[in-house]
Amino acid sequence: MQALVIAAHGSHLNPDASDPTYAHADAVRETGAFDEVREAFWKEEPHFREVIRTLESNEVFVVPLFISEGYFTEQVIPRELRLEEWDPKKWDSDGTSATHATLEATDVGKTIHYCGPVGTHDAMTDVIVGRAERVTGDPTIGEGVGLAVVGHGTERNENSAKAIEYHTERIRKRDRFDDVKALFMDEEPEVDDVTDYFEAEDVVVVPLFVADGYHTQEDIPEDMGLTEDYRLGWSVPATVDGHRIWYAGAVGTEGLMADVVLERAADAGADVGDARGAIRKAVTPADGVDRRPETEPSAEPGD
To answer: What are phi and psi of 96, to 5 degrees?
Structure first.
């Protein structure tokens, strides 16, 4: 038997923070690829510490629903799962290249395949582009349009910015958008000045966050000038300094994130059968979880 554990941060303050985790777990569960699928959190129940001990399966694939490698993925989760043999060097990563490490949870006799975070997997690049397609309603989005990939950024974890820059560069190499920039909340270049970095009239802004919350639904919209008060909502697109800003909300709410979870587990040796195809087939352009007040796009990007 094989089990999947999706490990996420959760929140005591934002009741919606765990919604994407449950949604992606449900999507994987419906494919039947795993005998057991469980959610586990740092700030909510069920907790990291108990989850492995509640499983019947002897082989467990743990996929962190985090954007970057760092404190939580390298220290907190392995410690709370009681993976005694764990060492970050087992990932042999440069900050964006973690794949998986196989360890034994000796107290319960289970083999644990501890995977790298979803946010650094190559499949996330497609999720970001897909998010841009869905917020604009244009599956061919690119020509005449700029794309901003937004991360938190922090001096405490250099890998936080690496993940954003990694996907930005991968998208840039596709030569699809007029320009692609990595912007941050707490580092330069800052998302506050988004219009300074693009010549294109239309700019799609995709935050590389797991869930919508304080940053994506309050800080970023106000900082970019989409609205003076997030409680009043904002238009999509919103006009700022002569640019039309198509703000997408957290990429982690995309249905294709479940596919990235499966990719991580498959890379670690999980038998997922045709589950990835089933996930991709199930995702529609209207799939994203959107916390904004309902608005209708008033123009086509690039017009």
So the answer is: -135, 5
